[in-house]
Amino acid sequence: MPKTIMTVDDSASVRQMVAYTLREAGYDVVEACDGVDALAKIDSATYNLVITDLNMPRMDGITLIKELRTKPKIRFTPILMLTTESQSEKKMEGKSAGATGWIVKPFKPEQLVTVVKKVIG
Amino acid sequence: MIDSLQQAFIEETRELLAELETTLLAVEDAPTDSELIAKLFRALHTIKGSSSMFGFDDIALFTHDIETAYDLIRNGELIETKADKMPIGVYDLKQPFSNNLVKLEKNDSFYLFSDGYADQFGGPKGKKFMYKKLKEMLLSIQDKTMQEQFGIIDKTIEEWRGDLFQVDDQLIIGVKI
Lengths: 121, 177
What we know:
The complex is a heterodimer of chains A (121) and B (177). Chain A has 121 residues and is α/β, with parallel strands linked by helices. Helix content of chain A is 41%, strand content 21%. Chain A has helices at residues 12-24, 35-41, 61-68, 88-97, 109-120, and strands at residues 4-8, 28-32, 49-53, 79-84, 101-105. In chain A, strand 3, helix 3 and strand 4 (79-84) form a beta-alpha-beta unit. In chain A, helix 1 (12-24) packs across helix 5 (109-120), helix 2 runs parallel beside helix 3 and helix 3 (61-68) packs parallel to helix 4 (88-97). The longest helix of chain A is centred in the N-terminal third of the chain and has 13 residues, at 12-24. The radius of gyration of chain A is 13 Å and the shape is globular. The relative contact order of chain A is 0.19. Chain B folds into two domains: 4-75, Four Helix Bundle (Hemerythrin (Met), subunit A) (Up-down Bundle), CATH 1.20.120.160; 79-177, no CATH class. Chain B starts with a helix and ends with a strand. The interface between A and B is medium-sized, with 18 and 19 residues.
């Protein structure tokens, strides 16, 4: 049974690109457009990994990570942040909030798959 | 699929540019609206992030520069042009003064000052006022008219000095474009 990943990003093009790459690599993917949408969809499946952007409307990535870590169902699920070079201070903030690690944008599809495989196999 | 992703990027960027324009116009009427400003930066950040992901490096670099420029405006950035450390009067080692060219935009304020204000002793411990406090004060009064700023600058140093002597001339010239 394929593992399920939620990808959260307000940029539809980046979100679709991440989803397409992961589906091609054999994962099931659920897309969410921001933190609020992600929380609404969190009970719809059992997730093996969450990949979230940080700068989003309504609810940003750091707040989402904190919210997810309060939910027993997803408390120990790995969470990866999508960051840019200019957001280096956000990496530590995200780690403190409960993120497992980060991927720096821009990245190549194969780099994304390599990181995801390292985290969830 | 890659073509359709690129098409999605182009459509999204067009929408974000339109949103950016609308938001900028709204910010003109409400320059301190933090939600509008956050929206503006989010749009720029998304354009930068997605264009770099799709290999449009020039757009990403250009957007990064715009983001930096907007950040300066958001923070009410103070840009300092340091003068030559040389008296303007008679001086044995006198050299030609450096000329500094500063590009000014509408609504910029610039200040020229001598060292007397920052060097004034006072406060609870009789210490110098210092440049850091002077810069912070200038940044904090940017929503005031120049006449109001004059009053605040004058009152601040008088209160700082208290009963101590004035140690030097205290000249500050402020001009708003």
